[in-house]
Amino acid sequence: MTRVAILWHMHQPYYEDLVTQEHVLPWVRLHALKDYFGMVALLKEFPEVRVTFNLVPSLLVQVEAFAGGRAHDQYLKVGLKPAETLTGEDVVFMLRNFFHAQPERMIHVHPRYAELLELRGHAAGLPGLQAAARRFSVDDLRDLQVWQKLAWIDPIYFALDDRIHRLVERGRQFTEEDKAVLREVELEVLNAVIPAYRERQHAGQIEISTSPFYHPILPLLCDTDVYKRTHPDSPMPRHRFVRPEDAAEQLTRAVACHDRLFGRRPAGLWPSEGSVSDAMIPIAASAGFEWMATDEQILGRTLGVEFTRTANGEVNQPELLYAPFIVTAAGARIACGFRDHVLSDLVGFTYAGWPSEAAADDFVSRLLRAGRRLPSARDAQEPTIFVILDGENAWEHYEGGGRPFLRALYSRLSLNPELRSVTMSEACRPATRMLAGIFPGSWIDSNFYIWIGHEDDRRAWSELAEARDVVDHATDVALAARERAMEEVLIAEGSDWFWWYGDDHSSEHDLEFDDLYRRHLRNVYGLLGRPVPEELFISNISGNLPSRTQKNPTRRIAPVLDGDETSYFEWLGAGLVEADDTAGAMHHTNLQEPVVTFIRFGFDDTRFYVRFDGPRPMAAALAPHTLTLTFLGNPAARLVIRDLQGHPAVSQFSRGSDQRWMPVPGRARVAVGDIIELSVPIEELMPAAATLGFFVTVHDAAGIEVERHPAHRPIEVAPPDARFEALNWSA
């Protein structure tokens, strides 16, 4: 008999900005509608099948929040608005974001959804999306609101729920009442997710394991220098991160969350990304974990062997791979299973393109061949094959959301007399083989390159380490503020931020991940009343940023500061940056009309000038807002423009040696009317620098940042020198 231990790993990063309480991306909610519910609900059809689900706490608490109506994301808000009231910004947001689904399996299979995608076309960038928006009627927009969510509803509901069946059958010309029905189903599914797992656990069919609360790479929390084991010559972060106490806290919180939601402490741990090291073994054992799991390559490097496959997929040393071990380190011990890399990846990345029955047959035949190669004597330990992979991401690429494949697989596991499905706790007993320590690495190439090997990663780790130190040293701050700041640090320790840095992984949401990571760290400083390092306002992404058209100054200017365009010529020759539409997508949390649309800038011999234009007179726009220009340099400078009881004023600040912004006397001047015009002496901004770099931010009346221009890199410009006119001369 061959034991088959399948672990479906379910996880999402923590998408909420704790200050604005906005969930930046919708993946928790959308995957909950399909995979998080359907994967466990499907098992009721196969009571003989036993599997393990690894549910990451950062996912579970977000599911709870959405189920209880406490969480919101922009996709949800725009999707629920009456179609007749959608603004131009709403429609652009929809056309940019409401087709984020696997095209062949989730869009093209629904004729109306495919028709709407064709209507949008290949529009990219704000002008293209605005042009596409004019092709959409109110009925088209309402249909898009419905299909963006309907495509994610679990196939079980497609087949069995009359409400969903009627919507799918009609396909178009939906009503606001239809949207309300779909919202009713959405809340029903969200509220069913956690109880469904609890019920299957109580029935004894599944085991539920956990991961560190916010899904950090535990070995790197213990000591980032562990990376040198595999990359001894690699550059390292400027600030080493050594926080084993944070690793322990992430596990302690995970255990408490699991106990609260499922009524028992978890026996097992899937360390984030299968990442292990000797340092995390005693921490996991102290938290009460009896087993953990990682990849076969970690076992191979620990034992000094290489697992290879024959042409038909048989591993060369099955007696090593297909058995649990006991890992010991620093006097602690924990059982460990090692995933069959090939079998797991076949499900995750290959079988999606196969007919479901053929894929299930191939998988089961591989299990049978593997088991038959091991001794069958009465006293021999049964071979145990560990199959571990994501439980949500693969199914978007499968026919029918993966349900035909899973039904075929579970049916064969139920009926085959040579195979017995087991939970991970069952699979790790008895573990008699011993490992004195474990090679440090993850399930990807048995190292940590993905999370610390790139320049972008190292910058992010340095920022994290420095923010963590600030929390330790903020002894003058109220305990509640320190606790909230520490929560932000724990969130920023999650693996997903680092996953998307570098050139090996990319998505349409790289900028959102980068922005949210730095936002969490900025929140640390804000909660503790500490100045935010300017570095945290600049993207950590060193490549593949959206292009920005910046027109540099071509001549000296001498505008009259009166808040109006006195003449066409006064700003002729100034530099120009159009406010990023990406900034609007990320920072206009309510999709309101932007305050700033154009920024012009230039010099005369002694002064620097800036002009702001917006869609409405800036005098009216400024009253509830504050505009801030932050100039990078040494020392850094800041100009704050606000309306004081109907009179515009500009305040000047300089960053002191303690990094705090201190008011300083200055000669900046401002005028506000249809436009905002500002000037400041060059010597007050850049006494020693050759280039001037600056950001523009807009804050609302509550002090919340609602716009940042540019979104990812500062505007950089050099003041004119003696060659300026000659270099920029034109007829």
Task: Tell me the major beta sheet.
Answer: 7 strands, antiparallel
Distance between the termini: 87 Å
In one word, what is the shape? globular
Subunit organisation of the chains: single chain
Mean pLDDT: 93
The CATH topology of the largest domain corresponds to: 7-stranded beta/alpha barrel
What does it look like?
It is built from 28 helices and 25 strands. The chain has 731 residues and is of the alpha/beta class. The protein has four domains: 181 residues, no CATH class; 229 residues, 7-stranded beta/alpha barrel (Alpha-Beta Barrel), CATH 3.20.110.20; 84 residues, immunoglobulin/albumin-binding domain-like, CATH 1.20.1430; 178 residues, Sandwich (Immunoglobulin-like), CATH 2.60.40. Strands 17, 18, 19, 20, 23, 24 and 25 form a seven-stranded antiparallel β-sheet that branches. Strand 18 and strand 19 form a beta hairpin. Helix 1 crosses helix 11. About 2% of the residues have low confidence.
Reconstruct the topology from this structure.
Layout (H helix, E strand, L loop, with lengths): L1 E9 L5 E2 L4 E2 L3 H15 L9 E5 L1 H11 L6 H7 L7 H10 L5 H5 L3 H10 L4 H9 L4 H13 L4 H6 L1 H9 L5 H27 L3 E4 L8 H5 L21 H19 L5 E2 L10 H7 L4 E5 H8 L14 H4 L3 E5 L2 E8 L1 H10 L5 H17 L11 E7 L12 H13 L3 E4 L1 H4 L5 E4 L12 H4 L2 H19 L5 H14 L2 H5 L10 H18 L22 E2 L23 E4 L2 H7 L10 E6 L3 E7 L4 H5 L3 E7 L4 E8 L2 E9 L5 E3 L5 E4 L3 E6 L10 E8 L5 E5 L5 E3 L6 H4 L4
Helix pairs in contact: 1-11, 2-11, 4-7, 8-11, 18-19, 22-23, 22-25, 23-25
